[in-house]
Write a sequence for this structure.
């Protein structure tokens, strides 16, 4: 099977697709022939070093020329949804008759559709409904919740496969917290709505007034969206949380590795996610996690005993943090459970399952 992946990605260190798209294609390259064409001329060594990666610096993409002169795929996979504009490139792909799969990365959920609603309604009516409902198309959702929150109006032909994780061969062995108090970390976009940081901010403030609250330190790492990092810092400072909560910039590569190795607990309070790569990475490092149902990982975290699940309300988030910061005795067992969660989502295992779905789409199952 020949698979052409199309994307329109920038190299954003804080964005999940930056890592999960090349990781998925890399894992599938061990099983099938693949080509990845990114519509933006990104020349990062992490991508350029992949033998299947191409971009406009290599050649301008034209589906008719590509399929007749270079390589004709059996399947086309769109990594994204609104990232593809209805120009000659996309229209040519859709009229080629080649079966395609759309992985929308949460773009079809009610939560995401609620952003820029008027603009999206117009764009959907003019073009994107037809794009999603194409007779040759299927939608690849990451979780059942993403599919449920997207609804059947887009395309009833869909399948569910999660993102994967590269589980480190050498993983930290965790028996207890690193210090007297647990280091809790959030790593992701510092964005109030999707990540639920507005609720987290409400949850934290009363804790400072409670003399019997357990001690902990929380570090929030990430790229600030619309200046929300500054807003958080001001409110936390006004509430007297300067020494308890730190809002920091984004971390990547070795710096991110150091942050996760030094942490004790991972926190993610999202309203909605596709499949949160940061949470899977934290599990690979053996970090017990505090999560909300919107992360789409609460069921497996609960089933494996790898952390604490709370509703997205200030009271419930506050209670979960208090319980997590008081659970030193159960830490070693929960750390082992967290690593088990990561192993369930290794990329080689995920790629084999997705390959079966792709074969069904092209009628070769």
């Amino acid at each position: 099977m020949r698979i052409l992946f199309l994307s329109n990605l920038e190299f954003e260190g804080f964005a999940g697709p930056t890592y999960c798209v090349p990781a998925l294609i890399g894992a599938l390259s061990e099983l099938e022939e693949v080509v990845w064409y990114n519509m933006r001329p990104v020349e990062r060594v992490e991508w350029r070093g992949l033998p299947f990666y191409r971009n406009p610096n290599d050649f301008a993409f034209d589906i008719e020329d590509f399929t007749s002169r270079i390589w004709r795929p059996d399947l086309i996979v769109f990594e994204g949804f609104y990232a593809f504009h209805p120009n000659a490139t996309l229209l040519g792909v859709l009229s080629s008759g080649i079966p395609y799969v759309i992985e929308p990365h949460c773009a079809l959920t009610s939560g995401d559709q609620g952003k820029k609603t008027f603009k999206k309604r117009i764009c959907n009516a003019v073009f994107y409904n037809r794009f999603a409902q194409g007779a040759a198309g299927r939608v690849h959702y990451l979780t059942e919740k993403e599919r449920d929150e997207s609804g059947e109006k887009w395309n009833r032909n869909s399948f569910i496969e999660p993102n994967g994780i590269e589980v480190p061969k050498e993983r930290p062995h965790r028996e207890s917290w690193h210090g007297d108090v647990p280091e809790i970390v959030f790593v992701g976009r510092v964005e109030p709505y999707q990540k639920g940081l507005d609720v987290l901010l409400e949850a934290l403030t009363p804790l400072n007034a409670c003399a019997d609250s357990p001690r902990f330190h929380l570090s929030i790492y990430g790229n600030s969206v619309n200046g929300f990092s500054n807003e958080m810092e001001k409110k936390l400072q006004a509430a007297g949380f300067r020494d308890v909560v730190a809002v920091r910039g984004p971390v990547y590569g070795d710096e991110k590795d150091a942050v996760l190795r030094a942490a004790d607990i991972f926190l993610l309070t999202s309203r909605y996610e596709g499949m949160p790569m940061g949470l899977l990475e934290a599990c690979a490092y053996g970090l017990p996690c505090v999560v909300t149902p919107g992360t789409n990982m609460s069921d497996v975290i609960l089933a494996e005993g790898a952390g604490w699940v709370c509703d997205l309300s200030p009271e419930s988030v506050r209670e979960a943090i208090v319980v997590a910061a008081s659970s030193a005795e159960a830490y070693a067992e929960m750390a082992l459970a967290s690593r088990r969660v990561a192993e369930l989502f290794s990329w080689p295992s995920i790629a084999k399952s997705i390959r079966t779905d792709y074969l069904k789409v092209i009628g070769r199952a």
